[in-house]
Amino acid sequence: MSKILQFEHVSKTFPGVKALDDVSFSLRSGEVHALLGENGAGKSTLIKAITGVQLADPGAVMRVDGKEVRANSPEIAQGLGIAAIYQHPTLFSELSVMENLMIGRNGWLIDWQQRRKDAQACLEQAGAAIPLDLPVKNLRMAEKQLLEIARALSQEARILIMDEPTASLPEKDALHLLGLIRQLRADGVGIIYISHRLEEVLEIADRMTILRDGKYVATHDAKDLDRAGIIQLMAGRSLQAMYNKQQVPIGETVLKVDGLTCGAGNLSNVSFDVRAGEIFGIAGLVGAGRTELARTLFGITPADSGSIHLAGRSLAVDSPERAIANGIAYVPEDRHLHGVVEDMAVIENVTIASLEQHTKRGLVDRASEEMAGAEAVRRLGVKTPSLFNPVRNLSGGNQQKVALARWMAIQPKLLVLDEPTQGIDVGAKAEIYALMEQLAEKGVAIIMISSELPEVLGMSDRIAVMRQGEMVKVFEPGAATQEAILEHAMEVSVAS
Ligand SMILES: Nc1ncnc2c1ncn2[C@@H]1O[C@H](COP(=O)(O)OP(=O)(O)OP(=O)(O)O)[C@@H](O)[C@H]1O
Ligand SMILES: [Mg+2]
Predict the structure, then answer these.
(1) Which of 79, 320, 338, 495 could make an SS bond with 332 (beta carbons 3.0 to 4.6 A apart)?
(2) Domains along the chain?
(3) Global pTM?
(4) Are strands 159-163 and 190-194 parallel, antiparallel or unpaired?
């Protein structure tokens, strides 16, 4: 296998951060090369340097097929046969699916029928069943991710870079993608693969390169590393068990939902309750209605009928403001839409929901705000050079931690977490689980929506399964298995 891409002496300096420090990396044709490291290790920065989205510091050398090149812009990189799926979708939300697939493809003859056919084929290859004419803003997070994949495939690149392609994909779509990657590998495509889902990495990678704090640590054949070995290299220390669920006393019913129906959210007749100290896991496939349920509980798409009781009181949750005022907090899956305000400083993002705790006679007490913010940032291990850095400049996983830190500060009655550890490294995951437990211990009722079954099984008390807008099953503590959850989620040979 030939070295299709070599990248040497790559450094990247941001104000206050050395994101990459003399890193070297090489990719062979026909291999899947995983790039691993904790949140903020420099993975995405390395990718952006390869694709010319961000220029590396002077001194970096890049070779394609042994020949020195300068990929100083995304267009040049594309011309060299490099395609990338970025961690944060770079789609144009006002444009249609079709238009997004066509952008940057000026070489095509204007044969609309052919264009549509090609676009359709790419979508199918990616496993995305989405209409070509739908505006991208109407897509779900997972569909956006599949569209990104389709767009990268449409470039027929020899070097394919995937930064967290499965982060918001449920099991089924993720498996499809892995199959596709194997196929591309067999065709000789070189693939750089970034993922915090280590099971997936162990399954698909031929080689692995590990970064830590912007520095190159090691490259190994995948067969020489196991999970513990990878974590050791990533963190520079070994980690204890991931799920260490404490049994906290389950208290009174905090949330009681009866016959919740929402046309806009495609929810029908959902009834369940969650009690103080309970972690109520919700599993299901994409489109099963899990995120819709969260959005209805938070007042983004208010219910058409049915009732919501919080701490015994009937509640009309018709807006997020109303939800927050009543002690409902929500950390959405798509944090770029609702989770963090990218241009605002870390500190402001963290304290925005708890400002009244720091307000006296209408004036915000900055010192008290900063202390609380600093504490939340420290507890979650958010990696940022300063509290005043805009969130935009943090790594993907660290942005997620900021979104969580905000709600940790207000101690809600009900906390709804949608894919809380998506894109979070293994070490930080354990920190987030520990925080969930602390909140549960204080009597917060927690709803955790997750597509990662080990997480659902490891962290939940009861586990509900949703399918086509309905809650089709609730497992009592300890009663669920991975297979049983999938059976209910996919409606295959359902007993009972
Ligand atoms: N535009 C920027 N301005 C300032 N600092 C930045 C910028 N982009 C990245 N950084 C910093 O560079 C470091 C590496 O970030 P990077 O996004 O490469 O991490 P990552 O390994 O991809 O992490 P994750 O797993 O969380 O996605 C981080 O400390 C981050 O805060
Ligand atoms: Mg990243």
Answers:
(1) 338
(2) 3-235 (3.40.50.300), 253-490 (3.40.50.300)
(3) 0.75
(4) parallel
